[in-house]
């Protein structure tokens, strides 16, 4: 695996989305949850008169960090080492998994507790740990649900957004051995709390991701809502953080901007319930050893592309996911990446490189622009989607649709060809044209293409033909 998001055996998005589109319960769960978050976000964003200035500041800080990433990463490495931490560099997912697994085994640990982390989902760290005989325990409530179900997360922020209370109750009854459990949210939360408490106390190693890392102080920041992250970063003896290199920001004071943008955009809260900050290690306070794994996995490739580079500004808030009409119909599993929705449609192809599944993601969008309107760091996602689509076409991955479009281009370039095509289409459409629309396509590739599109039929008379007949009469 060369990139971050692995798609080697994944299906292209249109085929993967078919199962989700047929799952009425899943679509109902996703629509209800995203609608609730959208309403909360809009209310708290409206409270800030300088919201647009904050967005501009966040974008400027991230752009500055990306432009100077080579020097900032070296500064971060020096700051972490001076604070007593150890820095590791990983070119790809395999190297990162190897580093983390070796560190865990060196401690003699056979289980680890984990803070919710998209980066470790991206590199499939849990699979690597289990292959080495280490049991990873997800401590975020939604991540625990997904892990018990043997599924992948379907949302950046709410990994189990596709499940409702009754489905979670049934899962806990089966996997945690709690036959009398009800679907009351408080009772479900208490069951998870009791399940995790012993793991927090007995685990000697914890693994986290990072929302931000400050180059000037070596401070790593994790924000979360349940307190499980605070438990993981303070109780175990060893803390291992896996972080994409784009999470680096220049200064500690830059956190002021992002800690206003992130909670409002992600959960619709004014501030995160738990914000954990740590700089290396300190005697008698927290872990006795801290390891920071800096992961590339396609990020320098994305950095080298001026048109795609703004995707690396992403602070993983998921605001774009919640407003996306495509995501609301399909959920996140169809993306085959922990980065679902609009940001996944531009980030996963850049990290993953060449796979067919990743190449299909830029087309999983209506280009409505709602994602750009809500992005707290002003990522112009629609423009990058168009850029990524052009790259797919240039690689010859557009398949039959691409060939058809090239043929249509030649037809549209010649008036004579265009008029011949119109006459031919009028004849061919007769069996399927009803009321001015193509109702259905005959069996074949066009049948699949037409299932998701409304296509007007060719009119019986064009304007030019009408004008000429009028002149003759």
From TrEMBL:
- Annotated signal peptide: none
Offer an example of a GO molecular function term for this protein. 4 iron, 4 sulfur cluster binding
Gene Ontology BP, a term = lactate metabolic process
Q: What PROSITE patterns does the record tag this protein with?
A: 4FE4S_FER_1, 4FE4S_FER_2
Can you name this protein? Putative conserved protein containing a ferredoxin-like domain
Pfam families, sorted:
Fer4_8, LUD_dom, LutB_C
List, for all copies, the residue spans of the domain called 4Fe-4S ferredoxin-type. 304-326
Keywords assigned by UniProt, alphabetized: 4Fe-4S, Electron transport, Iron, Iron-sulfur, Metal-binding, Repeat, Transport
Translocase listed as a keyword: no
